[in-house]
């Protein structure tokens, strides 16, 4: 069933704004033109902000033709919408892995695509369903493995790592988080995360999720280290909110 949906998405790729434009194929004016300009400028933050605008208004992004009604089914909060988003995530990840130079700018769009896929999977998993989050886990695990195996693309693996931790936690599979983090921990022994080069939003998220998992696992020393790093990288306005999350999680662990 999933394969059938993917074939339909690829067949209509020329008419689906995200699947077409996010891989940098559309030319002309409007969204696609701006997307290509930002890619040419290696402007990852600009691309992230541009992608953010698509969550507010999809309609103007679609080309006017007689297939719009069919395409709309692939871009909304539906199973086809999730597959379209995962298709984009895999495409962007492939381009990230294929490039031989200047790839760090691609991390911010990767962050957006990975998070958007998870948000959609969570929305679709209502009434106790797990199917769509498990589908997202399937794709994320594959991407994480590929990125982690390439030592020059492990920064991208951190993006997927964060989404896997969130997904496993929501599915009640906290033990799986430990395996993912063990892989990241082993790689970090040889090359530390550089807060100057990496997006701070990525590192704050990683350290917070890592610290939160360590709290739940009873590893107080590691939890303290990771959560302190997360707080240190947070903007002053966000530190209070993060600190309240940390205290809440700590109280929950003590109570349990």
TrEMBL record:
GO CC terms of this entry? transcription export complex 2
Its domain of life reads: Eukaryota
The UniProt entry's GO biological process terms, in alphabetical order, are: poly(A)+ mRNA export from nucleus; post-transcriptional tethering of RNA polymerase II gene DNA at nuclear periphery; transcription elongation by RNA polymerase II
| Signal peptide residues on this chain, from the entry's feature table | none
**MF terms (GO), sorted A to Z:** double-stranded DNA binding; RNA binding
Q: Which InterPro entries match?
A: Csn12-like (IPR045114)
Question: What's the protein here called?
Answer: Uncharacterized protein
Organism name: Effrenium voratum
Identify the taxonomic lineage of the organism of origin: Eukaryota, Sar, Alveolata, Dinophyceae, Suessiales
């Amino acid at each position: 069933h999933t394969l059938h949906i993917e074939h339909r998405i690829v067949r209509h790729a020329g008419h689906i704004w995200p699947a077409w434009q996010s891989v940098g194929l559309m030319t002309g004016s409007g969204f696609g033109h701006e997307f290509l300009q930002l890619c040419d400028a290696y402007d990852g933050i600009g691309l992230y902000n541009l992608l953010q605008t698509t969550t507010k208004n999809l309609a103007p992004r679609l080309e006017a033709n007689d297939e719009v009604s069919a395409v709309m089914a692939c871009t909304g909060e539906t199973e086809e919408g999730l597959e379209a988003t995962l298709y984009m995530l895999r495409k962007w990840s492939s381009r990230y892995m294929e490039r031989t130079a200047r790839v760090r700018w691609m991390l911010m769009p990767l962050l957006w695509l990975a998070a958007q896929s998870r948000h959609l999977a969570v929305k679709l998993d209502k009434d106790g369903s797990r199917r769509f989050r498990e589908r997202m886990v399937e794709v994320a695990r594959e991407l994480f493995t590929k990125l982690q195996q390439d030592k020059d693309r492990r920064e991208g693996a951190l993006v997927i790592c964060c989404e896997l931790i969130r997904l496993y936690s929501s599915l009640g599979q906290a033990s799986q988080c430990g395996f993912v983090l063990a892989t990241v921990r082993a790689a970090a022994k040889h090359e530390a995360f550089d807060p100057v080069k990496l997006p701070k939003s990525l590192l704050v998220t990683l350290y917070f999720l890592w610290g939160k998992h360590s709290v739940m696992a009873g590893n107080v020393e590691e939890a303290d280290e990771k959560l302190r790093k997360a707080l240190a990288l947070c903007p002053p306005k966000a530190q209070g909110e993060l600190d309240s999350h940390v205290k809440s999680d700590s109280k929950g662990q003590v109570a349990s």
